[in-house]
Amino acid sequence: MTGAGQRLFIQEVGTRDGFQIEARFIPTADKIALIDTLSLCGLAKIEVTSFTSPKAIPALADADEVMRSLRRQPGVVYTALVPNLRGAERAIAAGTDELNLVMSASETHNLLNLRMTREQSLARLLEVVDLAQGAGVALNVSLSTSFGCPMEGVVPEDVVLGLAGRFLAAGVGGITLCDTTGMAHPGQVASLCRAFRTRFPGAGATLHLHNTRGMGLANALAGLGAGIDRFDASLGGLGGCPYAPGATGNICTEDLVHMLQAMGLALDVDLAGLLMAARTLPGMVGHEVPGQVLRAGRSLDLHPVPASLEEIRARALAQTQA
After folding, report:
1. Fewer C-beta within 10 Å: the chain N or C terminus?
2. What is the mean pLDDT of residues 95-111?
3. Which CATH number is 311's domain given?
4. Is pTM, for the whole model, over 0.90?
5. Is 178 labeled as catalytic in the residue annotation?
């Protein structure tokens, strides 16, 4: 279990994972302004964009300009998803702090998503590892479908841990365990996270959860109980994998922060600032967003007492006396 007082780290992925599947292209200036706002909210990391082919993900065709134009804040890591060597070269040239490499733990999902077998992906990503290490740039690897594949079902823990171990042995600093399609349940999350912590006690570990079946926040608590202290989340709950049938948005950043702060956990994040940023999203994307706290308010945002309360009290007391 994460120790009392131990800081938890929230990592924003909405400007990559959220924006990549939006039908409306978000203007470059709006992306930069939103990231600059989020940079002031106490987030540990922001996944700014993806250095993929503009033909593959046109929504993020402005990756280079966005990364170069940010007002960077001390203590915030600006990361980007990188699928291959060419993407890594672009990301490094744009000043990206960390490269987030991605492949699937599921063979089927990897073939559909990346058009390669897992072994082919591993070999190509290890080339990126060599490049990044030579440039002195930090590395993280996200293992998609770590908890389940919509075509194969549950992915065995040994498969996930085996892939993680090969990347960690190559010098990668951290691993993200991704519930890409929202198939995970709390017992499964706790089991894999405990196994990861046992096998790789010194490695950085992040949970990347989706809320496809309404278990996202419960899964976050399960990961927390198993010793995970880093969580990806998406402002407003935007997101979803275009290659994962039925997958909906990531867990919502402001909802996750609200829950953890309400529990009294150590979390130096400005929830009010996140909510202000989230209110701008519907205008950007052209539709409402799934976040719950944005709609209902924080649990301790109390309502004013109605003017009729004293009259109601007096009538109640009168009935008692009668």
Report:
1. C
2. 97
3. 3.20.20.70
4. yes
5. no
